[in-house]
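Aim 2, interim progress. The first record below pairs a target sequence with its C-alpha cells.
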Amino acid sequence: MRPFPLPTLFVPLLLLAAAHSVSLIYSHRAGELLTVSDRLYLFVPALAALASWQAVRGARDRRLAVWAAACLAFLAGAEVILVAAYDLRDLRAPDYGVGDALYHAYYLGLVALLLGAARTGPRPAPRERRLTPPEWVLDSLITGVVVAELSWVLGLVPLLADPRATLLFKSVNVSYVMLDVILLTLVLLRLRVDRAPTWPLVAGLLAYVAADLLYLVDGPVRIPVGLTDLLWTWGTTGQAVGFALLARRSAPAAPTPAAVTLIVRTLPYLAVLTACLILIFNGLSLDLRGRGVVWFTVTVFALVMIRQAYTLSETTRLNRLLAEQAAQLRGSRDEMEYRALHDSLTGLLNRDGFRQLMQAQTGPRTLLMLDLDGFKPVNDTHGHAAGDRVLRDVARRIHEVGEPWFDAARLGGDEFALLSRAPLDAPQVRQVATRLIERLSDPFDVRGGHMTLGVSVGAAQGEPGVSPDALLGRADAALYLAKRGGGGQLREAAALPDALRTDPPGQ
C-alpha cells in the first residue's frame, strides 16, 4: 500500500472539506444555509494554511512552498475576518475592508509566485515535450480570454449595470474576476511547462473562478443554497494540495498523466465552443441580418476547428509513423553494432568487441587467454557442423564459469579470452582457471557419442597504464608456455622470465 503523499494535516483537511460538503447538502434540503456550515467553512482555509506550512518541511522547492503557504495564510485571514465578523453575525461587509486587502494580497502573491515559478521551474527534455512554447502559450491565452468573456457576460455586465452597487464595490469585484482569470492562465502555462502534478491546483482555481462568477450573478440568477461555499471549500483544498505536490516534486518532473494531457489539449476547443455559444445566445436579440451574421460566423468557426482537428490527427499519425520508423532504425543500428562486435556462432564478443572492451577499462584488470587442446580432430573426424556445436557448448561453459567476474570473448577459431570486471588477486585467478579447466574437461556430445577436450590457460595482470596490446602479449606468452608444457594447465605472466615478456619491465 502506497503511503499518503502529503503531510499529516492534509488528512483532516480533506475530511473537514468532506464534512462541510455534507452539511451543505443538508442546507440545500433545508432551503437555507445552516450555521454549522458557516462554522465548518471557517476552519477549511485555516487548516489549509496550516497544512501548507507543514508541507514546507518536506518540500524540495522550499521557496515555492513558503510563498504558497504565506498566500494561503492571507486567504485564511480574509475568510476568517469576513465569516466570523460579518456572515455569522448577519452583518453587511464594507465595500472594501481588511478582508478584501488580504484577498488582494493572496491573489497578487499567487500571481507573483506562478510568474516566478514559470521562469525558474524545470523543463522537460525536448523529446518529451508534446507542445511547442507558442502552442501552449496560445492555448492558455485562448482559455483565459474565453473565461474572461464568460465572466463579463454572466457576472460583470450585470454588476456594472446595477445602480445599487457603489463604484468601489464594482471595482473590487472586477479586480477579483480579473485576478481569477490571470491565475487560471498562469496555472495552465505551468501545467504545460514542467508537467508537475498540478492538476489539483488547476481544479482548485477553476472552482474559485466558478464560485466568483456565481457570487456575482447572485442578483438576477438564483443560486442553489451553499453552492458557492462548496466551490470555495474545494477550491481552497485543491490549491493547498496542488502547491504541496508542486513544491515536493522531484527533478526531473514526472510526466503528466495522459488523461490530464488530453484535458489540457481539449481546453482551447472547449473555449472556442463556449465563445460560439455566447455569441449565439447574445445574437438572439439582434435583427434578422445580425442573427445571420452570427450563425455564419459560428459556422466558419466550426469549419476551421474541424479542419484544424483533421490536420492535428494527420500530424499525430505522421508523428507516430516517424516514431515507429525511428525506433526501427535504432533497432537496426543496434543490431548492426551487436553483429559487428559479437561472434555470430557463440554470441560472445569477437576480437573487435573485446579490443573495445579492453580499451574502455583503464583500471587494473586480469586477462585470461584460453586455447582448446585437441579440438582439430573434432572438425576432421565429425565435420564442421559438429565442431560448431562443440564451440557453442564451450562458449556456454566459459560464460557460466566467468560470470559475474569476467566478460568472455571468442578471438577466433578455438581461442577464447576472459577479461575481469574488477582486479583479482592470484588465488582468485587460479581458482577461476582451475574451474575452467575442470569444466571444459567434461565430455562433449558429438553425433550420439562423447569426446573429451582440454584447455590451456594463460593469465596476465594489467596494471594501470598497461596498453591492451601489451596485456594481450603477456597473456598470449603465458598461454604459449601452457600449451608447450602439455596443455590442461595455467601459466601466469607474472612468473615468466623477462625474456618472454612482450613489454619492458616496470610497465
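The second target in this work package is listed in the same format:
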Amino acid sequence: MKNPIESKKHKVLIANRGEIAIRIMQACRKLGLAFVALFTEPDKDSEHCVLARKLGGDESLYRVSSYLDSNEIFAVADQAGATAIHPGYGFFAEDYRFARRVAQREHKLIFIGPSWQVIRELGDKINTKRLARKLGVPTVPGSDKPVTDDLEAEHIAKSLFDFQKEQGINKPVILVKASAGGGGMGIEEVDDLDKFRSVLRRIKSYSKRQFRDEGVLIEQRIFDFNHLEVQIVSDRTGQNPVHFGTRNCSVQSLGHQKRIEVAPGFDPSSLRYAFDAKKVLEDITEYSLRMAREAGYDNVGTWEWIVSPTGQPFLMEVNTRIQVENGVSARIAAIKGKGEVDLIAEQIRVGLGAPLGYTQKDITLNGVGIEYRIIAEDPDNKFSPWVGRITSFGWPEQDWLKLHSQVPTDREYEIPTDFDPNLALAIIWGKDLAEAKARGVEFLNSLNLQGENASGEALKSNVEFLKRKTEGILAF
C-alpha cells in the first residue's frame, strides 16, 4: 500500500498566522508538500509572510479580511487548489463545525487535526468527564452533564460548597466553566453562594456568544495544584496512540495563560516531592492513552491534568489540536533513535492518512526541555498587553536553543493590536534540570529585545518574570 502522502500531490492551506504558520510551512517543506498561507492587513509585515513568499513564491500567499471568515478561507482553498487545511491552534482549530464542513463540502478537503466527531466529543468538557468516569479516570468533583437550568446549577454549587466544608476546607471555592471552552477562557471562581447567580449568568452569556452553547460545568476548585499535560499522537486508525511524555505548565499569568512549559512534568531524580512523582506521571500517561484508545483519537492532542499537593491527579480537559508547547515535548524525544522530532510534521503526515509507523517502544525521552513564551506585556500590572513597536530583536545561536517567532530581526516591527502580543517561543534543552535552567537563564540574559511605544516609552516584556520563575520550575 502506497503512502497516502506519496500517492497524491497534496497542498496544505495554513489557516493561521505568526510562528505557528511558520512552523507549519517548515513542516510542509520537510514532507515535500506544497502549501498556501494567509495574512490580514495587520500581519503584512509578519515573518510568516516573508517565509511564505521565500518558500512558495507570491502565489503561495493570499490576503484575507479575517482569519475567522470561513467562507473566505474556503474560497482561497479552492482558488489555490488546496487539498487539506491545517488550522494551527486557536481560531478554527477546535471548532468541530468547521472541521465537519471541511470534510463534507462539495470540494472535500482534509482537516489536519482529529476528525470532527472526535473534536465534538472531547472538545466538550462534560462529554470528556463522562468518558473519563466511565473508564475509571479520576476527574474533579462536580457536574458531569451540561447544566443550563439555573436551579440545578445552584443545587450543584451548594453541594460542592458543603462537600469542601466537610473536608475541612475553611474557604471553599468552586469554578464555573463554559463546557465548550478551553485554554483557560470562560472560567470564573466563586467563593460565596450568594455571588453564584451573577457569575453563572455571565459565563452562560459568554459561552453562548463564543461557542453557541450555554452549557456550563461546575467543579470544585483545587488549590495549589500543578498543571500537567500528556502529549498524544495517533494515526487515522485511532487504535494505536502513543505518548511523547509529560509537560508541566504551572507557571502562568493571572488569567491562567501559560508562560513556561517544562518537559517532563516532574523531576524526581533531582527534586523531592511529597508524593510518588514518578507514579503520578505514569498514571496520567496511562489514563490519557486509555481515553485516546476508547475515543478512537486520530491525530495530535493533549490531555490536561491538575495534580494536588498530595499527588492526586484530576483530568481537566482534552485539547483536540496541536498546542503552542508541542515543541518542548518534541525537543526531548527521539523516534527509533533519531532526534529532532517534529510533532507538527507528524501531525500533518498522519493527518493525510499515513500510518504512524512506530510504537511506544520506539520512542525515547532524554533530558529536560524548557519553553519560554516571550510576550510584550507588563507582569507587574496584571500582565496587561504592551502596545508599540519592536526596534531590535536578536539572540546568540546555540545548539541547545530553538526559537520560533514572526518578529523580524532585520527591521522594526509594529506589534499588531488585533492579536495577543506574543513575540517568540524559545525552547531550551539540557541533559538534566540544572543544565536546562542554567541555559534558560543564559538565553534570557543574552536576548536582545528592545522597543518603544508612541510616547517613546521603553518596551515592557515578561523576560524578567521568566527569569524569576526559572529557579523554581518543577518544584512542588
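Residues 171 and 404 are 42 Å apart (CA to CA). This observation will shape the mutagenesis plan for the next reporting period.
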